[in-house]
């Protein structure tokens, strides 16, 4: 059943991202509203949908990051963590400053393999983490989605 | 199966909210404990259950908001966002100050339609967002539940 | 189906925690990186996996807490809340300073019974709360997992 769901999702996301006109693109945008700063706004049909990062009061918040290519949980986890590092650097933060990570797995059976890639990536004082599995609930056919809150 | 689940949930929530004695009501309450401020405490049988918003150190946190009426994902998303705006205003914040939104969909197939209502609602520097679907896991038969963290 | 899932998860977690060599252990560690402080780092094969709490800028973040023993939702909720209180105290915070709680239920049918144990545990100005159910997605066979953000 889960495999069927994945196939459905793959088609869904393909249609979301392309044919069906969702037209989500990331543009470079870094404006300041009072203290809040938002970076790399993602647009849906030219309308701002969400930002890749926001900053306020010494904290940076990252949007949920998935891996939208064919690959196993280790490849997906590695991709997500590398993208997290990229986004943190753009926002003036870094992996060792991450305070909290939320992990949404496609399948709880991937828990151990996800850990094998996750461990050690945040230095000797890693963030807190909350992990749950949502069985088909991760958008875009990704096996894992992660967001984080970091110090900056 | 999901439709069956929704019916079960509808009954469950009806019983939760009414007959079965949960008796959850929102009362106006805005007290200060040190820096922390809590607004609109929700009670369960006269005992404080959770607040609608809390504030501390330049940040406001909103409780998960659902839509507990018959309607499609667009109607539910619109309701949730309007209620979010109301709660933010009560707390002295606003939609353009939202830093992070968490979106829990009932069904990932609602992703695109949710986006159509979501986009543009937070101004030109929108919050980061994390979206997953929980397939029957949103309380009270809502098609979507959202919470947020905002600057204040 | 959910019961079957639970059994699978029980076996999975047993294997994760033991035989299969995950070897996750909590060690006392409280170091400071700039402002960020991390407490009780959990290691996976001697490599830092995540911390039990992190602190920065007047906020403390707690890792997701589950109940990994045989018991019903009330016993699991009570255990999780007691452990939350322990971790908050270690970090210099307390239950009445909690700003936001995320609740991940194994089964939405446990919502009411979870509330019965949850209510009143955070004083008269409780945190905001977001609750969803993930139907088999909570690691380690726990019926509920909670994390929090608190003032400190």
UniProtKB/TrEMBL annotation, chains A, B, C:
Gene3D superfamilies assigned to the protein according to its UniProt record, in alphabetical order: RutC-like
Top-level lineage group: Bacteria
InterPro entries referenced in this protein's UniProt entry, alphabetically: RutC-like_sf, YjgF/YER057c/UK114
- A single Gene Ontology CC term: cytosol
Coiled coil, from the record: none
One MF term from GO for this chain? Answer: deaminase activity
Tell me the PANTHER family matching this sequence: 2-IMINOBUTANOATE/2-IMINOPROPANOATE DEAMINASE RIDA, 2-IMINOBUTANOATE_2-IMINOPROPANOATE DEAMINASE
**Name of the protein in its database record:** RidA family protein
Q: What is the lineage of its organism?
A: Bacteria, Pseudomonadati, Bacteroidota, Chitinophagia, Chitinophagales
């Amino acid at each position: 059943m889960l495999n069927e769901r994945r196939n459905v999702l793959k088609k869904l996301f393909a249609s979301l991202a392309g044919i069906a006109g969702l037209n989500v693109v990331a543009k470079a945008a870094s404006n300041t509203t009072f203290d809040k700063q938002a970076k790399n706004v993602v647009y849906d049909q030219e309308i701002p949908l969400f930002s890749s990062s926001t900053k306020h009061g010494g904290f940076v918040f990252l949007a949920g990051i998935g891996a939208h290519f064919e690959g196993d949980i280790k490849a997906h986890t590695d991709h997500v963590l590398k993208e997290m590092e990229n986004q943190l650097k753009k926002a003036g933060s870094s992996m060792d400053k991450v305070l909290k990570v939320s992990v949404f797995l496609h399948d709880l059976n991937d828990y151990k393999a996800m850990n094998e890639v996750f461990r050690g990536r945040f230095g000797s004082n890693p963030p807190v983490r909350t992990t749950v599995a949502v069985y088909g609930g991760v958008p875009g056919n990704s096996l894992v989605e992660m967001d984080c809150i970091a110090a900056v």
